[in-house]
Amino acid sequence: MSPQTSPQPLDFAGRAKALASRSWNVFRVNWHLGFTAFGGPPVHFRIFNVKFVQETKWIDEQVFQELFSVSQALCGPASTKMLYCINLIQDGFLAALFSFLLWSLPGAIGMYALAVGVSKIDETLPRPVYALLSGLNAGTVGVIALAAVELSEKAITDRLTRILVFLGATAGMLYNALWYFPVLMLASGIATLINDLRWMHQPVSAIFVFGASLKGKVVRAWPFGKWPGRSTSDAGGNDNGGRRNSVEDEESIEISSVGKATATSAPSNTVAGGARQRAPQTSDLPVTEQEAAAAASASSSTAETEPRIIPSEFRLDFSWKIGTAIIVAFFATFIAVMVTRGVFPNPPGLPLLYHLFANMYLAGTIIFGGGPVVIPLLREYVVAEGWVNARDFLIGLALIQAFPGPNFNFAVFLGALTAIGRGQNPVAGAIIAWVGIFSPGLILVHGTMGIWSAVRSKRWVKALIRGVNASAVGLIYTAVYRIWCVGYIDEGFQFGKSLGDDPWWVVVTATSYVGGRWFNIKAPVAIMLGAVMGMIRYGVVTA
User: Where is the composition biased (Polar residues) (predicted)?
Assistant: First the structure.
């Protein structure tokens, strides 16, 4: 009988020490982002690339592009989901949750304080305040435009992705609906999937070969002398043998050219002693169009290479089954909240704060495209309900552009105002709105990362990401356009109008862009410079 081994005691001290070490590591790297990351999601992505790819090297460029695509493709705050996933990969769930708090709380506390202040002001603001807010908006537009250009340089790897960035931007400007942005990104992903896996190349080549063969048969059977467009010397007069030889030569040339084109698009293989050798493997997608062109000389197609081997430090330690269970559980809670909201539509049935939570939970679930998209939807769910007036909404919209951290902290401002307007506790309203709008995106992206760990190395996934990524970058230009159209605020038009209505705001936007692009001015400085220029305009106009 083998001796029984006593169970090893749990090393609580060791675990506590390891947890403290990981928490310090997360705090050391993330603490300042909630105070310094101004400009909204497009600028946040640029900051994350510098911080986590170039400096700390917590992830590589390929993983960054993957997370960017996943964050944009799912509902909720895009930059918040990316930061959450980066820390999830690095140190696990507790680290990801801690990083989210460090990221979101500074801006959330500031927006709460502003909500309390705004609730005490008169119906109209002093004109200098309007000038300040317009300057903040104009400076923010320049910063977001710069971020869009820089992210485009990463997303564009060939002519197709350049087209997808352009189409994503223009399509997003022309139409707006809840279902629209996800469909655009999915269609772009399908386009690169078809292109990279060359699903259409063989049928198209076969059509060209068949066409060339059919033309040759028609030429040989042509009963009216020479074939139109051919010279007499080529036709050989009326000599049928000469005409036939010339036709056969022409046919062989055409088929040969089609064959060469097909061979060029096919995988590069060499035959030596009857053995096929695969072309050199390229490990990941090119970062820029120039790198893509250089890589093309060594390999015929990125999609035809072996799947990328994911380094162990970039892998998650939970399975796709757990990820699927998390997603299913979320949708169960979502259905329960929405059914309750529908059955008891009025506050007499359920407390007002529950309806506030339900509206924010719904907004956080159906918003795709991040901060720029949340603004009009929250207007529908809060202003249209009569909880917050339009003026306070627009004041909050201008202020959130000047605050660091996620734009979804705007919900804290609206939640506090809603509670104040109905005689409820503003802290409770702010917390309920904050939890309601952030939780759907974080829960879904956490579950998705479990599934993602099982499929991320597949070639078709890499091809799909290229298109989703390109379309998502294009939608950032849509955010530039949307803020531009309502950024100019004054006493006579508190709902906002186009910054282009006054040349000074165009100058402010251009200054912000040029300062960041060629003089390395940081985003917070550029936005504050916009506010200062807004005050200068007020001083000149009223002098």
Answer: 262-271
pTM summary value: 0.66
Model confidence pLDDT, tens digit, residues 140-183 = 889 888 888 888 888 888 999 999 999 999 998 888 765 677 78
- Beta strands 488-490 and 275-278, pairing class: unpaired
Cβ 269 vs Cβ 277: under 8 Å: yes
- Cα 250 from Cα 257, distance rounded (Å): 11
Q: Which helix (H) or strand (E) holds 277?
A: strand 275-278
Residue 159's contacts (CB-CB under 8 Å, 6 or more residues apart) are: none
- In this structure, what is the dihedral angle of CA atoms 31, 36, 42, 47, given to the nearest 10 degrees? -60
User: Can you list the alpha helix ranges (DSSP code H) found in 49-92?
Assistant: 61-73, 78-91
Residue 509 has what pLDDT?
Answer: 95
- Enter the DSSP assignment of 119: T
Is 467 strand, coil or helix?
helix
Taking only the tens place, the pLDDT of each residue in 98-128 is 999 999 999 999 999 999 998 888 767 788 8
Question: Hey, how many other C-beta atoms are within 10 angstroms of the C-beta on 338?
Answer: 14
Question: What is the Cα–Cα distance from 414 to 404, expressed in whole angstroms?
Answer: 17
